[in-house]
Write a structure and sequence with these properties.
Helix 12 runs antiparallel to helix 13 and helix 13 packs across helix 15. Helix 14 links the parallel strand 15 and strand 16. The longest helix is centred in the last third of the chain and has 19 residues. The chain has a ten-stranded mixed beta sheet with strand order 2-1-3-14-13-4-5-12-10-11, with helices on both faces. It has a two-stranded antiparallel ribbon with strand order 6-9. Helix content is 44%, strand content 20%. The radius of gyration is 23 Å and the shape is globular. Bound molecules: NADP nicotinamide-adenine-dinucleotide phosphate (NAP) and magnesium ion.
Length: 405
């Protein structure tokens, strides 16, 4: 078979530990034999971020803005323990995902890879539920205060014009706790745009929920901005036969549980934090969660939702074969290549993304799987636990078969 040709490069961000090991294996086994890969490579491994004073992360994000599609490996976000583990670090570098997200102004969409033989805890869920989490403000950028005497709390906004607006929060007769939270209209608007655009790209209905009956102004603003933005996407939604649906968060929870899945659920920051853990756990495994960052202009970055799988990496360093699940990382590659194919009008590249994913799913449905999945499958398959290398080889042989006909 002649290798599939590309036109525009994808931005490739390498990472750390076990996922860095898998990254190379995935490229060698599943990508390079089939695709004449054009990528602009950025090494976001911790030591190279340190050597470049994290400039490489900024450069990778800017390249993503330029080219439009990126694929990213999981990376270490250093904490105190990592500073001891890597004494050469000159600073406790910030989360690369946080840096990239703030440059791209994106929204994160997380969706599980679903299998017939892994039953979600919620029995009627048949299709994936994608959580779209707003990633700015609210309680995550709030200030807290505790007071210990009777009194009144007043919130004052001081405009640059000099105009002041004040509102009494509450009068209290004893000790109390307080919180000041905010969000920016601009951020809410780009969240809304990213959600509508992603619904169009993936041809799925979009649900959005807040608590605007209680937070009439605050959550009311979210609802209003979504309604306004929807006007710009309505025609495309109608063409595609998809819908936008707003409801209260408590009603949404009840509907989600009763649903069969197959839609995007947009959530405010805190709701998205909580609901994405609920949804991913109910679907099965962190190793099977995909994650994609979408900017309002359509720029897209694909990655796995899990981290660098440190415990497996230390086993790997001792020379042991590990049974680390590469599914979410493979799907990051298939997603990025398919998207690149769509943007450049290269049908073979889109088909490759589909075939790669199908080869993965066929392998799992045949019972060949990494150890994390063995206890999750039902009795419709007899699991054969394999290590990562054997798993990738099994996928490759199916992919080769798909190309030999
Ligand atoms: P993690 O790497 O996701 O791993 C947590 C545990 O989940 C693993 O020890 C493993 O359990 C299981 N697991 C996760 N992915 C798996 C896979 N693909 N196959 C099999 N099992 C898998 O999370 P962490 O240990 O909290 O974080 C490790 C490092 O990753 C940290 O330095 C953190 O900063 C970074 N991180 C990066 C990202 C990102 O770049 N997007 C996201 C999260 C965390 P068992 O050990 O029981 O097998
Ligand atoms: Mg969380």
């Amino acid at each position: 078979m002649a290798k599939i040709q590309m036109i525009t490069p994808i931005v490739e961000m390498d990472g750390d530990e076990m996922t860095r090991v898998l990254w190379k294996m995935i490229k060698d086994e599943l990508i390079l034999p089939f695709v004449e890969l054009k990528s602009e490579y950025y090494d976001l491994g911790l030591l190279h971020r340190n050597a470049t004073r994290d400039q490489v992360t900024v450069d990778a994000a800017l390249a993503t803005k330029k080219y439009g599609v990126a694929v990213k490996c999981a990376t270490i976000t250093p904490n105190r323990q990592r500073m001891e583990e890597y004494p050469q670090l000159t600073e406790m570098w910030k989360s690369p995902n946080g840096t990239i997200r703030s440059i791209l102004d994106g929204t994160v969409f997380r969706a599980p890879i679903v299998l017939d033989c892994i039953q979600p805890v919620v029995r009627n869920w048949r299709k994936p539920i994608t959580i779209a989490r707003h990633a700015y403000g609210d309680v995550y950028k709030a200030v807290d205060l505790r007071t210990d005497e009777p009194g009144e709390c007043v919130m004052t906004f001081r405009g640059e014009s000099g105009k002041e607006t004040a509102i009494s929060v509450q009068k209290v007769d004893g000790p109390a706790v307080w919180q000041g939270a905010h969000n920016k209209e601009k951020s809410i608007r780009s969240f809304a745009r990213a959600c509508f655009q992603y619904a169009i790209d993936t041809r799925q209905d979009l649900w959005f929920s807040t608590k605007d009956t209680i937070a009439k102004v605050y959550d009311g603003e979210f609802k209003k901005v979504f309604e306004e933005e929807f006007e710009n996407y309505k025609a495309r939604f109608e063409e595609l036969g998809i819908t936008y649906f707003y409801t209260l968060i408590d009603d949404a929870v009840a509907r989600v549980i009763r649903s069969e899945g197959g839609y995007i659920w947009a959530c405010k920051n805190y709701d998205g934090d909580v609901m994405s853990d609920m949804v991913s756990t109910a679907f099965g495994s962190l190793a099977m969660m995909t994650s994609v960052l979408v900017a309002p202009d359509g720029t897209t970055e694909y990655e796995a939702a899990h981290g660098t799988v440190t415990r497996h990496y230390y086993r790997y360093l001792r020379g042991e074969e590990t049974s680390t699940n590469p599914m979410a990382t493979i799907f990051a590659w298939s997603g990025a290549l398919r998207k690149r194919g769509e943007l450049d009008g290269i049908e073979e590249l889109q088909t490759f993304g589909d075939r790669l994913e199908k080869a993965c799913l066929d392998t799992l449905n045949a019972g060949i799987m990494t150890k994390d999945l063995v206890n999750l499958v039902d009795d419709t398959v007899t699991p054969t636990p394999v290590n990562s290398r054997e798993f990738l080889a099994a996928i490759r042989s199916r992919l080769e078969e798909a190309y030999s006909v």
